[in-house]
Specification:
Oligomer: single chain
Low-confidence stretches: 1-39, 123-137
Structural class: mainly beta
Largest sheet: 22 strands, antiparallel, barrel
Number of strands: 50
Strand content: over 45%
Distance between the termini: 84 Å
Length: 956
C-alpha cells in the first residue's frame, strides 16, 4: 500500500503531466473567455445636473442599477461612467433631498457606449431611517469650486456653507475672506482700488448705494441667511457694466427651499467699549431703539414758509416762534446689549406634474453699539502745526448706535425644467445715531481749550424690485435671459446738531466758533436725498457645435442693457447766533439752559438760514449698452471667450454756481465707450487650469464727486469737482489654479492695470483742511495674488482619523506695486489749485500688502456638529488723501483684525453660535508723512472695541 501511495511510476508521471496540462488549459481558456467577455461589455456614461440651479453639475449623486448592488457616484463635474454586461437595465438616479428618478428599459449591446444625461430637482419626499454623515448642496464649497473650475472666465465665489462655517453673518464680512479684498470704515478696497472702482449687483442687476458718498452699497445690510453665494469678478466680461476696474460683486439670493424650512434666530452681543462705559447720544425719536424716526427731528416749518417768498431768508428775529423739539444736551442712552432677531422660511408649492412655486422669505432686525473714548482728530499744515481754521482735538470721543431692518422675498415659478420666472423684493431701513465730542487747542488761539459736540442722525432706506426670466428652447440650443429692476433709495439726515465751546484759562466756558468768520460752526443741518434707479437686461445664448458626447462646445451671446438713474439732493442749514449769550458762561453738559425757548422768544439769541446755492443739485445718468460674446472651444483643453461691449453713456449734474442763486449750470459726460474683452482658459489636466484675461474698461465719477456741494466734517470738508472726467482702464490677468480635492484650491494670479486719468481724493491748497477729487495723469497697478485652501493633514500628514484631518487651513495674500503721476497745474471747478506735494507717489487707497488666513475645525460628536474658526485679516499702510500745498500725504495705518466663531448644530432643531469680532481692538489711525520736517504725525486715532455675540437658532 505504501508503494502504491507514495511511489510514482512512469504512468503516474504521465498522469500528473496530463492533469497539469488540462488545468493550465482550462486556466488559459478561462482567462481568454474573461477577456472576451470584458471586451464585449457595454459602457454606460452621462452627467447629472441640478435643474433647480440652472442645470449646473450635481456632484456626488448616486447612479444605481435597479435590483443590484452595481452603481457609482458622480464626480465633481457631475459625470459618471462604468462597464456593464449586455442586457436591459433600469437605471436609478438619486441624491439626498432630491427626487429619485428611474429610467427603465435601457438596452446595452456589446461594445456600445450609451450616454444618459439627467436633471434632478429637490423633491418633497420624506426619508426614514437614513443616517446622513455628509451631504453636498449647490451652496457647498465643493460645488462652488466645481463651478469655478469649469467656468470659462475667471471668477471667485463664496458659498453660504463656507460663510456659515466661518461664522460670517453679513456679506461685507464675507467678502474680506476673498483674495485681494480689504475693508476699513465701511469702504472696500479691491486690489488696491477704492469704492469708485467697484460695483455691486443683486442677482445680476445693479444695486444703488444708500450712502450718497459711496458707489458701493453698504454690504453689511445683507444677512448671509439670504445668500446662496457671492460672486466676485475681478476680470471684465461684456455682460457687466463697463464702469469697472477693481471688481464686480454679485449677490445671488437663495431661491430653492428644498423640502421647506422655518427657523427663528435670536441673538445678543456686547461691545467692550460701548457697553462697559457710559454711552451718550443727543435726544431724538422715542422709537430710535427700533430705527424709526417719529418726526421729532425735522426742519422748521418756517423754512418752507420763508422760501415761498422770493429773496427772503429765514431769520428768527422776524418771527420768533420756537420750532425745535430736540435738545443739545447729551443724555445717557440705551446701554442694553445689542439685539438681533431673524425669521427665515421657505416652502415649495406643487402646481402640477412639473410646475412648482418656490417661496423664500427672510426678515432680519439688528442693533449695534460702538464707542471710541480715547481718540485723536487734528488737521495740520506743512510745518506740523494746527491749521488756522482747525483745532488739535487730542480728546476725541465718539458714540454710535445703529439699526438695520431687512426684508427679502423670493418667488420663483418653474413651469418645467426649461422655464423659470422669478420675482425678488428687498426692503431695507438703516439708521445711525452718532455723537462726537472733541476737545483741543485751536489753530488761531492756543491759549484756550476748544470743544465741539456734534450729533448726527441718518436714515437710509432702499426698496428693490426685480423680475427675471430664463427659458431654454430646442433641446437647450437656445437660452433666453431677461430681467428688470426698479430701486428707490433715500439717504436722509433728519437733523444734525453742532455746537462749539471755548474753555477760558479762568475756568469759564463760553459758546464760540473756531474762526472769526465761521458762522456755520454752530448749526442745525437737514439733508434729503431721493434716488430712482431703473435697469433692464436681455440676452440670447446660441449653442452650437456638438461633440461626440452630444454636448455643445461653442456659444454665441448677444445682449442689451439699459440703465436710467436720477438723484434729487437738497440740504438746509440754520446757523445759531448767540448775540447776548456770547459772553455768558455755559455748562458744557447743559447748553439747553441758555438755548431755551424762553431766551429764543426774548431774542437773546437767534437763528438764520444759511444759504449756499450748491447745497442742492440734481443729477442723472443714462446708459444704453449692447454686447456680443463668443465662447469657442478650440479643443478639449483650449477655450476662448472674446467679447465687445458698446455703451452710449450720458451723465449730467445740475446745480447753481456759488453766488448766483437761480442760475442753473449743467456738467455733462456724453460719450460712447467701446470695451473689448478676451478670456482664455487652457486645461493642463483634470485638476488644473491656466487662464488669461485682458480688457478695456472705464471709471466714471460719482455724483457727489462732481456736484460742488461742500460736505463739512469737524476737521475736514469735502468739495465736489465739476471738471472731473472719466478714466480709461486697461486690465491684464494671468492665473494658474489647481484643485487637489473637493473643497481645496491652490492658485496664483498676476495682474496689471494701466489707468489713464484716474480719479483720486486730494487735498486742496487752502488754509482749511479741504479735500476734493481730480484726474491724475496716469497710474500703474501691478500685483500678485496667491490662495491656498486645504486640510491641514495634507500639510502635516496623519491618518484618516487624526486631528489634522478635521482642521482646514485657508490663506490668501496680495502684494502690489502702484505708482501715480500727477499734473502740477491741476485745478478744481471753483478755480482752487491742488499744488500737489508729490508729483509721483502710490495710488490713493492702494495697500502694498493684504493678507487673509483662517483655521477651521469641523467635527461631529454624537448629536453635535461642531465648527469653529479663527481668522485674521491684515492690510498694510495706504494713502487716505494725497497731500497738497506742501502738506504731505495722509496715510491710513495698516492693522490686523482677529475674529473667532464657534457654531454647534445640536440635533435637528438647535444651532448655537458664539462669535468674537475685532478681538485685538487695534487703533484705527491716520498719519501725515511730513517728510519736510522728517516726521510721521498722527492726525486721527480711534478704536471700535471688540464685539462678543451669542445666538440661538431653532429649526421647526
Amino acid at each position: 500500500m505504501s508503494v502504491r501511495k507514495f511511489s510514482i511510476n512512469a504512468d503516474g508521471l504521465l498522469e500528473i503531466k496530463i492533469n497539469t496540462m488540462m488545468k493550465n488549459t482550462f486556466l488559459y481558456l478561462f482567462i481568454l473567455v474573461g477577456f472576451a467577455t470584458f471586451a464585449q461589455n457595454a459602457t454606460l456614461k452621462g452627467q447629472l445636473t441640478d435643474k433647480d440651479a440652472d442645470n449646473q453639475p450635481l456632484p456626488f449623486a448616486n447612479v444605481q442599477i435597479k435590483g443590484t448592488t452595481t452603481g457609482t457616484t458622480t464626480d465633481l463635474d457631475g459625470l459618471f461612467s462604468f462597464e456593464l454586461a449586455p442586457g436591459t437595465y433600469t437605471i436609478v438616479f438619486s441624491f439626498i433631498g432630491y427626487e429619485t428618478i428611474e429610467v427603465p428599459d435601457i438596452q446595452l449591446k456589446a461594445g456600445e457606449i450609451v450616454t444618459i444625461n439627467q436633471a434632478l430637482g429637490a423633491g418633497a419626499f420624506q426619508l426614514e431611517a437614513v443616517e446622513v454623515t455628509t451631504t453636498v448642496t449647490r451652496e457647498s464649497e465643493s460645488a462652488i469650486l466645481t463651478e469655478q473650475k469649469n467656468a470659462t472666465i475667471m471668477q471667485t465665489k463664496i458659498g453660504s456653507v463656507e460663510l456659515s462655517r466661518k461664522g460670517v453673518g453679513d456679506v461685507a464680512t464675507g467678502l474680506t475672506k476673498a483674495t485681494g479684498i480689504s475693508r476699513e470704515s465701511g469702504k472696500f478696497y479691491i486690489r488696491g482700488l477704492a469704492d469708485r472702482y467697484n460695483n455691486a449687483y443683486l442677482n445680476g442687476l445693479p444695486l444703488p448705494s444708500l450712502d450718497p458718498k459711496l458707489k458701493l452699497i453698504d454690504l453689511e445690510i445683507f444677512s448671509t441667511n439670504i445668500v446662496e453665494n457671492l460672486g466676485i469678478y475681478k476680470t471684465y466680461s461684456p455682460h457687466l457694466y463697463g464702469d469697472f476696474a477693481g471688481a464686480s460683486i454679485d449677490i445671488d439670493t437663495k431661491d430653492n427651499p428644498g423640502n421647506g424650512y422655518f427657523e427663528i434666530e435670536i441673538g445678543s452681543s456686547v461691545n467692550t467699549t460701548a457697553h462697559f462705559n457710559d454711552f451718550f447720544l443727543l435726544n431724538g425719536s422715542k422709537y430710535d431703539f427700533f430705527g424709526v424716526e417719529d418726526g421729532s427731528r425735522r426742519p422748521p416749518s418756517l423754512l418752507k414758509a420763508f422760501r415761498a417768498i422770493p429773496d427772503l431768508i429765514y431769520d428768527s428775529r422776524l418771527v420768533p416762534i420756537w420750532q425745535f423739539d430736540t435738545s443739545y444736551n447729551p443724555s445717557e442712552r440705551f446701554g442694553d446689549p445689542n439685539l438681533n432677531v431673524a425669521i427665515n422660511a421657505g416652502k415649495r408649492f406643487k402646481l402640477g406634474d412639473e410646475a412648482r412655486l418656490d417661496v423664500i422669505v427672510n426678515g432680519d432686525f439688528s442693533q449695534q453699539h460702538k464707542a471710541s473714548l480715547e481718540g485723536l482728530d487734528v488737521a495740520l499744515n506743512a510745518q506740523g502745526e494746527t491749521l488756522q481754521s482747525s483745532f488739535f482735538g487730542d480728546d476725541f470721543k465718539k458714540y454710535e448706535f445703529s439699526t438695520n431692518a431687512t426684508l427679502l422675498g423670493s418667488f420663483v415659478l418653474r413651469t418645467d425644467v426649461h422655464n423659470k420666472l422669478a420675482y425678488t423684493v428687498l426692503l431695507v431701513n438703516d439708521t445711525t445715531d452718532e455723537m462726537r465730542e472733541i476737545s483741543g487747542v485751536a489753530g488761531e488761539n492756543t491759549d484756550n481749550i476748544f470743544k465741539v459736540r456734534r450729533g448726527t442722525f441718518s436714515q437710509n432706506t432702499l426698496q428693490t424690485h426685480q423680475f427675471t426670466g430664463q427659458h431654454f428652447f430646442d433641446q437647450r440650443k437656445f437660452e433666453f435671459n431677461y430681467g428688470g429692476s426698479y430701486s428707490r433709495a433715500t439717504g436722509n439726515v433728519p437733523e444734525r446738531r453742532q455746537l462749539f465751546f471755548t474753555e477760558l484759562p479762568d475756568g469759564r466756558t463760553l459758546f464760540s466758533k473756531v474762526g472769526a468768520n465761521n458762522n456755520s460752526d454752530n448749526h442745525r443741518f437737514f439733508q434729503n436725498l431721493d434716488e430712482n434707479d431703473y435697469s433692464a437686461r436681455v440676452s440670447v445664448d446660441i449653442n452650437f457645435g456638438k461633440n461626440e458626447d452630444d454636448v455643445y462646445r461653442h456659444k454665441f451671446t448677444l445682449g442689451l442693457n439699459v440703465r436710467d438713474k436720477s438723484r434729487d439732493f437738497s440740504a438746509q442749514q440754520i446757523n445759531i447766533f448767540f448775540d447776548e449769550l456770547s459772553t455768558t458762561p455755559v455748562d458744557f453738559f447743559n447748553p439747553d439752559a441758555l438755548l431755551s425757548r424762553e431766551n429764543f422768544e426774548r431774542k437773546i439769541f437767534h437763528v438764520e438760514e444759511f444759504v449756499r446755492p450748491t447745497n442742492s443739485y440734481k443729477a442723472d445718468l443714462r446708459n444704453h449698452a449692447s454686447f456680443a460674446n463668443i465662447e469657442y472651444q478650440f479643443s478639449d483643453r483650449l477655450t476662448v471667450n472674446a467679447g465687445l461691449r458698446v455703451e452710449d453713456y450720458r451723465q449730467r449734474v445740475f446745480f447753481a454756481p456759488e453766488g448766483l442763486v437761480g442760475v442753473t449750470e449743467v456738467e455733462t459726460i456724453d460719450e460712447e465707450f467701446y470695451l473689448p474683452s478676451l478670456s482664455v482658459k487652457y486645461i493642463l489636466n483634470e485638476k488644473s487650469n491656466l487662464r488669461f484675461a485682458a480688457s478695456q474698461t472705464v471709471t466714471l465719477p460719482l455724483f457727489t464727486e462732481v456736484a460742488p456741494f461742500l460736505d463739512e466734517e469737524i476737521n475736514e470738508s469735502t468739495l465736489g469737482n465739476v471738471l472731473l472726467e472719466q478714466s480709461d482702464n486697461f486690465n491684464v490677468d494671468f492665473k494658474w489654479e489647481y484643485f487637489p480635492d473637493r473643497s481645496e484650491i491652490i492658485s496664483a494670479t498676476a495682474f496689471f492695470k494701466y489707468l489713464d486719468s484716474p480719479i483720486e481724493k486730494v487735498r486742496v491748497a487752502s488754509v482749511n483742511n479741504n479735500v476734493s477729487f481730480v484726474n491724475s495723469n496716469e497710474a500703474l497697478v501691478a500685483g500678485v495674488e496667491v490662495e491656498y485652501r486645504q486640510k491641514l493633514s495634507k500639510l502635516l500628514g496623519g491618518s484618516e482619523y487624526s486631528l489634522w484631518n478635521d482642521l482646514y487651513f485657508g490663506f490668501n495674500a496680495t502684494a502690489m506695486f502702484t505708482e501715480v503721476d500727477i499734473d502740477p497745474e491741476v485745478t478744481i471747478g471753483n478755480g482752487a489749485s491742488i499744488a500737489p506735494t508729490n508729483l509721483t507717489r502710490k495710488l490713493q487707497g492702494a495697500s502694498p500688502f493684504l493678507l487673509n488666513a483662517d483655521i477651521n475645525y469641523v467635527k461631529q460628536f454624537g448629536k453635535h456638529n461642531l465648527s469653529t474658526t479663527l481668522d485674521v485679516n491684515y492690510f498694510d499702510d495706504r494713502i487716505y488723501a494725497a497731500g497738497g500745498n506742501e502738506v504731505d500725504d495722509v496715510y491710513e495705518k495698516g492693522f490686523a483684525t482677529l475674529n473667532f466663531t464657534l457654531r454647534d448644530e445640536i440635533g435637528d432643531h438647535f444651532v448655537v453660535k458664539l462669535a468674537g469680532r475685532n478681538l485685538l481692538n487695534p487703533d484705527i489711525e491716520r498719519y501725515q508723512d511730513q517728510r519736510s520736517i522728517g516726521r510721521e504725525i498722527t492726525v486721527s486715532k480711534f478704536d471700535l472695541g471688540a464685539d462678543i455675540s451669542l445666538g440661538i437658532i431653532y429649526k421647526f
